[in-house]
Here is the input.
Amino acid sequence: MNDGKKPGPSPEGGGSVTIGKDGPERKKGFGTFGGVFTPTLLTILGVIMYLREGWVVGNAGLLGAWIIILLSFTITGFTGLSLSSITTNIRIGAGGAFSVISQSLGLEVGGSVGIPLYISQALAVTMYIFGFRAGWLWIFPGHNPLVVDLGVFAVIFIIAFISAGLAFRVQYLILAVITLSLISIGVAAAKGSMQHPLTWWGPFAGSPEHGFGGIGFWAVFAVFFPASTGIMAGANMSGELENPRRSIPIGTMSAIGLSLVIYLILAWWLARSATEKELLGNYTVMVDRSAWGPIVLAGLLGATFSSALSSLVGAPRILQALGEHGILPAGGWLSRRTAKGEPRNALFLTGAIVLGALMLRNLNAVAPLITMFFLITYGMINLVVFLEQTLGLVSYRPVLRLPRIVPLTGAIGCLFAMFVINVPVTMGALVLILVLHAWLVSRHLKAPFGDVRSGLFVALAEWAAKKVTELAGPRDKTWKANLLVPVEKPEELKGLIHLVHDLVFPKGFVMFLGLTGKAERKRLTDRLPTFAQAFREEGAFASWAIVRSGTFGENLGAGLEALTGTFFKPNTVFLTLPETGERGEELRTIIELALDKEVGIALYAPYAGKDPGALKTINVWLRSGGPDWKLTFDLENQDLAILLGYKITSNRGGRLNLIMSVADDTQHDRAEAYTESLRNMLRLPDAGVHIIRGDFLDALGRGPEADLTVIPMEGETDFARVRVMVERAGSPCLLTHDSGLENAMT
Here is the structure.
């Protein structure tokens, strides 16, 4: 229930706004200390610090332990800096890392990372409860483990259900307990616990569970690294912070810095306060060597309890954000919040997942996967910052600016840590991310915000354009049909859509050039985007533009002049046979202009009774090779006809015929041999070869039946002769004129 009020994000991207009968009501958000610093610090100072840091020092020695700690915190510290930087540049919404990634790389990428991140947060609650239970049973070995687990879950669920504010107040108490446990260790040091000589580099003996069979440096690193991965605990509350742009950087980096100092000092204290044997075999050495063991044990319990509570508070916020953007089914239900901004529905689902995981009783198999999803999230945040810095977009103006080496190192470090910890699990996690991304792409999500993906591709295109410009020499090997299609009346284009698509698919493009005069500008503006979108949905790129001038010729000429000066310029103008003599004169001028600009011509002439979309058999008429019948690489204005004929048949799976007319039977055999050789040179083994006696117009009427006849132009275009060709061929005709840049032989 939301009491008739609709919550939503605040204008500043933090806190919450409830829309009531009297208008927006501002709800005060959490501050830096309570909302970010405390949960982040308590998540980092967790069970590994209390139960495994001594083991790390025992295996690696003090220097080795410091190297492991510094490496771990360098990766997460750089990630924290990247998170802080991007937070000062955007209005971060609910969902923390999900919001950051989505606003930069799109909902598909954000969702494919956000879903596993949410699952990891939910399963992490179970892991922390298991950690709490281990400490509890060390004190009370007779208690039922399942009862302990369910009891802890019930307590943290009730706290999270009441409000995030109560959870943070509970964490203040836990922070006090952990502080007292660290003071107890300090008192022990002051009383003389540090009496053992330092071992700078350890024996890497392994663990008691495996009979101290030995272990490598990176395996020890893999055990410790999860200790440093709690840096998102505060960022997950981004939608409910008073000022996330300020609180996340200050709170996150302060927690990382303080926890790093604590880990380094504790390693030094442990190395001087216990023997190597004790460090390796006694996981509770910190309790035993402190001034007052019970408070350290209470700190251990508090740390695991706090981490579980932070995860149970943060996970529903991620789920609520995923639902709000329609990424998950039942998104409307998941996105609902109470009048106080609590995501109760998301909390119920999260609680069900945690409870189900508790019933499994052992999550060792998925524990590495949880770490992987955290690392993928951290790596993506670093990648986002690196990409935005590299693109140099004017929209990227963070208050906290970083050298590019920081996010790059963070991203590489996250990837490195993943493979060091577990290669098979890493590959499995990456595959799952890719599968989720493919699924989200297929759903065509609509984001309420822009992202930098278009800028990324524009940057790549600009780089490619510069490289292509630097390359000298002909580009006939890379030729593809890039059509400029003038449009006066949108309805006239309908019957030609399939033909135009088959000419450019899959790698060419179409530019629809709207020409005002016969149709209003608004009508063209409404229809041309629809045509372009239809082409894109069929896998062929299309764009559109409108030119306004006096006449058809002036319109098309102006568009041709402008577009042929661009890098991605059209190389063929697609025209239709004119109905009037006045239009014919304009077309002749356009043809001359196009050829002068090295742009080819494709002139379509319809035939009554023939569907221009039915293109199964294509006849390409070739010019005679006589009198010497010598085959060369210069086909003299026949390349475009051959290439367009091939494109249509390859896209339609139809039949291509190569046809030539000869004056008399004495030339038949030489013409057939010439055409056969040409077919082999063109690499068209399935094309039919037909030699027909008679002049061209007479032979045209006796050729194989076709759905489209392609004819190379000769000399100045005679539109009256073209109409005769159409009648003789008994099919629509496509007359072509090479630009000089095509070469069908390559």
User: Anything to note?
Assistant: The domain at 6-442 is CATH 1.20.1740.10 (Amino acid/polyamine transporter I).
